Amino acid sequence: MTAPVTPPPGRPPYDALPPDAPATVEDVRTSRRWTWVALAWAIAASIVAVIALVQDNKNNDTSSGTSTQQTQSAQDLQQSFQQFQKQTNDRLDAFSRRLNDTASKSDVDKLDKRLSQVENDVSQSKNDISKQSDSTTQLQSDVKDLQRRVNNLENQQQQNSGGGTTTTP
After folding, report:
1. Which helix (H) or strand (E) holds 145?
2. Of 7, 44, 74, 165, which residue is most buried, by most CB within 10 angstroms?
């Protein structure tokens, strides 16, 4: 952590100074020093750029074969670009055809409505099957109850008629 910068003795802290306070001699010296540093960096960068430019010109003058290589690579680049452009156009055409083959919004809406109706019908059929299953269970229970009652009546009649004598017509 850095220590806060303190002003010279007898002056208020820097953060207490108003923004329009006059600059001190030290402030001017510091800004002058940084101006010289920035100027030195600018000069150094300019020298490096000039050296690079001179070197590049020397390389271009000494190697005339490089220009033919550059021309060849430019032609290769142009062919690659044309091939890319053709592929892109073909893909866009294919996409356009696929887009034209898609259904319209009204067709999709109609299909969605029909699908909703089918879902409702299936749900209603499930409810009907459930009700029929309940009815079938109730009928089976009623049939078993009737069979039990018939058996009870037959048993009572046999007991009342004296032990199982039968009459034949």
Report:
1. helix 105-160
2. 7
C-alpha 94, offset from chain centre: 25
b/e burial code for range 115-152 (CB count within 10 A of at least 16 → b): eeeeeeeeeeeeeeeeeeeeeeeeeeeeeeeeeeeeee
Q: Residues 14, 7: contact at Cβ < 8 Å? A: yes
- pLDDT tens-digit map of 74-131: 788 888 888 988 998 899 888 888 877 777 778 888 888 999 999 999 989 888 888 8
For residues 45 and 41, what is the distance between their CA atoms, to the nearest angstrom?
6
Phi, psi of 11 (to 5 degrees): -115, 155
151 vs 148: CA distance, rounded Å: 5
* DSSP annotation of 102: S
State pTM to two decimals. Answer: 0.29
